[in-house]
Amino acid sequence: MRSAVTSGAGMPPGLLDGVRRWLAESGAEPTPARVAQALREQGRVLGDAEVLGAAEQLRSELVGSGPLERLLADPSVTDVLVSAPDRVWVDRGGGLELTEISFPDETAVRRLAQRLAAVAGRRLDDARPWVDARLPDGTRLHAVLPPVAVGGTCLSLRVVRPRAFTLDELTAAGTVPPGGDRVLRALLDARLSFLVSGGTGSGKTTLLSALLGLVGRGERVVLAEDSAELRPEHPHVVRLETRPANQEGAGLVTLEDLVRQALRMRPDRLVVGEVRGPEVVHLLAALNTGHEGGSCTVHANAAGDVPARLEALGTAAGLDRFALHSQLAAAVSVVLHLVRDRSGRRRIAEVHVLERDPSGLVRTVPALRWGPAAFLPEPGWERLRELLRSANAGDGRREGTGG
Fold first, then answer.
1. What would the pLDDT profile of 56-115 be if each residue is shown by its tens digit?
2. Sign of the CA dihedral 125, 130, 136, 139?
3. Assigned CATH for 167-391
4. Per-residue exposure over 249-262, b if at least 16 CB sit within 10 Å of its own CB, e if not
5. In whole angstroms, what is the distance from residue 10 CA to residue 364 CA?
6. How does the average pLDDT of the chain come out, rounded?
7. Of the N and C termini of the chain, which has fewer Cβ atoms inside 10 Å?
8. Looking at residue 186, what is its pLDDT?
9. Span 297-326, pLDDT tens digits
10. 63 HSE (CA, 13 A, CB side)
11. pTM for the full model?
C-alpha cells in the first residue's frame, strides 16, 4: 500500500497550514523554537519530538525540496519526475521506478515547483507556465503548469552530482565495454576532436565529463553550456553558462555568445555542452582554426544521423550546406554514440569515424560497436587506428580494440 509522505509525526494538515500562515505573516524562519511558538498560537502544546518533526517538515517545504528531499539526497538517483501528486518516479540508472512518495494535492506540487523556480531566479505562473533552469546546487529543474500540463503540474529534476564519474567507474558500470577505456584514452591523448551523440538521458554529459577528466593536467579546458552540468575532475576548468533575458527583455546571453567569448580565453580544449543552434557555426570554425581536441554533445538517434543533424542546425544559422560539410570534415574526427537499452542501462553502442563521400558530403563510418567482452571492430576501425597512431606518432603507444 502506498503511503503519503505529507506531514511529520502524523500531524494534522490543518494544523501545519496554520503554522505556515503564522510563519509567513511574522516572517520568521522555521526553527524549532519558532515552530513551537507557532503551535502555541494555534492552541496546541506538543512534545519535543512532534515539534522537531513539524520544524523539519516545514523547513523542507519552505527552503528544501519538500517530500522529494530524501530522493534527491540518494546518491543513486539521477532523475526525479512528478507527473501527479501521487505519481512520483525516480531513475537510479535502471529505468523509472514508482516511489512511495506523494504530495497532499496538486496545489502542493504547484507550490513546490514555483518556489524552486523562484530559487533559480525564474518566473513560473499562469503568464509563463513553464521553466527550464538550474538550481544553486546544480540540479536541473523543468516544470510545466496546467493547463499546458494537462491534469496537473509536471516537475522534473535532474541531479548533477558534485563529482564526475571516472572512466574506470563507467567501465565497471557497463557504459564502456571491457578494454574500451584504452581506445577512449588514446582518443583524448591524440587530441582528436569528437562528438558525443545520443538521445535524452542516454548519458552523454556523464561520458563527456569523464573523458574531460583525462585531459592533460597542463591544459586549459573552457566549457560553454546552456546549463552548467559538465563537472570534469580537472584542475584547470573555466565554466561559462548562458543567461535568459530579464523581465524587461534585457541581459540575454546565448550559447553562441559564449562560444565566441571562449575563443578569446586561450582554450586548449573548447567544449560545448550541447550543440542545438547557431553556435554550431562558431564551434566548427574554432575547431578548424587551431583549437584541436574540442568536443560537444548533440542529440541524435544514431551516429549515422549526426551529419544531417548538424546540417539542419547549420542551415538554420545561415551556413550553406556544402560549407557546413566542408567545415565538419576538417573539424571533427570521431562520433561516440550512446544508447539506453530497455533495461535502462546506458552504454556506448557505436564509435564512428567521419569521411567525405564522392559528392563532398560527410558521412559516418562504423569503426567499433558494442560487445559484451570488448569493442568489436567494424569497417572504419583501420581508419580510426590510423588516426590514433598518426596523432600519437613518437609516443611509443599502440592502440587496440580492447579485445
1. 665 555 556 778 988 988 888 989 999 999 999 999 877 889 999 999 899 989 989 998
2. positive
3. 3.40.50.300
4. eeeeeebbbbbeeb
5. 60
6. 85
7. N
8. 95
9. 999 999 999 999 999 999 888 888 999 999
10. 9
11. 0.77
**Residue bearing the bigger pLDDT, 42 or 273:** 273
Q: What are the start and end residues of each CATH 3.30.450.370 domain in the chain?
A: 65-161
Residue whose grid cell is 583501420? 382
* Size of the chain, expressed as the number of residues it contains: 403
What does 182-239 look like in DSSP terms, one character per residue? HHHHHHHHTT--EEEEE-TTSSHHHHHHHHHTTS-TTS-EEEEESS-------SSEEE
Write down the architecture of domain 65-161 according to CATH: 2-Layer Sandwich (3.30)
pLDDT class of 1 with cuts at 50, 70, 90: very low
Looking at residue 90, what is its pLDDT?
94
Q: Which residues contact 401 (CB under 8 A, 6 or more apart)?
A: 179, 180, 183, 368, 374, 375, 376, 377, 381
d(CA 98, CA 288): 47
CB 267 within 8 A of CB 221: yes
- Cα–Cα distance, 342 to 350 (Å, whole number): 17
pLDDT (mean) for 172-178: 92
CATH 3.40.50.300 placement within the chain:
167-391
Cell of 194: 569528437
